[in-house]
Structure formats: C-alpha cells, structure tokens
Amino acid sequence: MNILYRDDYLVSVDKPPGLLVHRTGLDAGETRFALQLLRDQLGRPVWPVHRLDKGTSGVLLFALDAGTARTLGQAFERGEAMRKTYRAVVRGWPPEAGAIDHPLKRMPDDMRTERVEVQDALTHYRTLQRYELPLAQGGFATTRCALVELRPVTGRRHQLRRHLKHIAHPIIGDATHGKGPLNRALAELLGLQRLWLHAVRLELAHPVTGQAVVIEAPMGDEWQRWSVCTP
After folding, report:
1. Which residues are catalytic?
2. Is residue 231 part of a domain?
C-alpha cells in the first residue's frame, strides 16, 4: 500500500480502485482488503476511520489504536471530523457550480432501526473541465462528460454517487446508479473500466494534537485518458 501520511496515531494510504476497505458479506468472493494489507505491511492492527467504495480510489485513513478511532468516530457524530474533496467524471455538462441538497434514505444494509430513516445530505460541486467524446449515444453524434470537484458536507452511504444520479449527471463507471451501455462504451473507448471517482484530499484536526492535517492523493496516470477528450 502506498502510504501518504503516518504518525504515532494515524496512517493514510492511497487506495487503488477495485479494493475493498474491509471484509463484507456484500462481496463474499473478495480475498484482498485494504485493512488486512495495511495491517500485514505495518505488522500491527489498524482501525478504519471512514469508508471508500470498492471502486473509489484515493485517500483512506486508519487509526493505529482503538482510542484514536473512537475519538474520531465521536467527532464524526458531532459533524466535525473531516473535510473531503473528490474528483469525478460525470455524464453530461453540469452547471459551473452548485449544491445538491437532497435527503437520502438509509440503504437496506445500513439500517439501524426497523423503520426507514431519511437523512439530510448536502454536496457542493464545481465543474473543472468539459469533454466531448467521439461516441454516438441516444441520437447524438458525440458524448458529453465533465470532470467535477465534489465536496460532501455530510457523509451518507454512497452519497456522491446517489447525489450525482439525482441531478442526472451520474458518475461514469457507476454500475448501480449510472447507465450500463454508456459505461461499457466509454470503457471500450478509453481502454479502461473503472468507477471514475477519486478521493483527492482529506483535511482534519488531529485527534490528539489538534493540529491541522492535510493529506492528498494525486490522481493516477489513467486520468490522463480524458485529457484528449476536449470540445
């Protein structure tokens, strides 16, 4: 694992796409997990502080002891733990900037009570670059996509993927919330199939020292495939 940051209490890695954070019954066939790989690499237990979807790459933070993990968990509950920044490629050309203020239901495997729970969810976004690809779709001669920056204010399950679907700009490569035929056609055109979502930056107050910690994960070389797809 590529270590981005480490001190006596925290360690962060650059998670590659396609790697689960930890073992889950939802993907029982997987045998490799970031938690176990990092534990074996460091030769000590680690505690995941937050989650990234299997397909998402980028900054992933672990605690090196249970107390630090608990402190960060309590900060999460108070809404004061982290600021996250992502990059994603989405279908279509969204506005220059905006906010997606759309409540989300807890997912069936994330229910904490018998009743359905709906949670407030807020994501800020801005469009960084627009692409137009030589791919005919839906009666159009080309396909429009855009690179966007995403800043979730809340941390709901699959929030970014669900919010982008809500505004009709699903993330490319999202098998659940996107369009399968378009995803497959773009994967063939680009020569790579993945969820085009990357956690590029994480900011937090250190749980022990209180000092500001900023961790960044550069976007991989595969993102350059989009640079030739400009209008």
Report:
1. 53
2. no
Give how many domains the chain has, as a whole number.
1
What digits encode the pLDDT tens for the residues 110-141? 545 456 688 899 999 999 999 999 888 878 88
Q: pTM value?
A: 0.91
C-alpha dist (Å) from residue 56 to 117, 133, 171, 185: 25, 23, 11, 20
**48 sits in which H/E element:** strand 47-48
- Residue pair 100/162 in contact (Cβ under 8 Å)? The answer is no
Neighbours of 178 (CB within 10 A): 22
Tokens (6 digits) for 181? 């035929």
Q: How far apart are CA 125 and CA 77, in angstroms?
A: 23
- What is the CATH classification number for the domain harbouring 54? 3.30.2350.10
Within a domain: residue 89? yes
Residue-range definition of the domain harbouring residue 148: 3-226
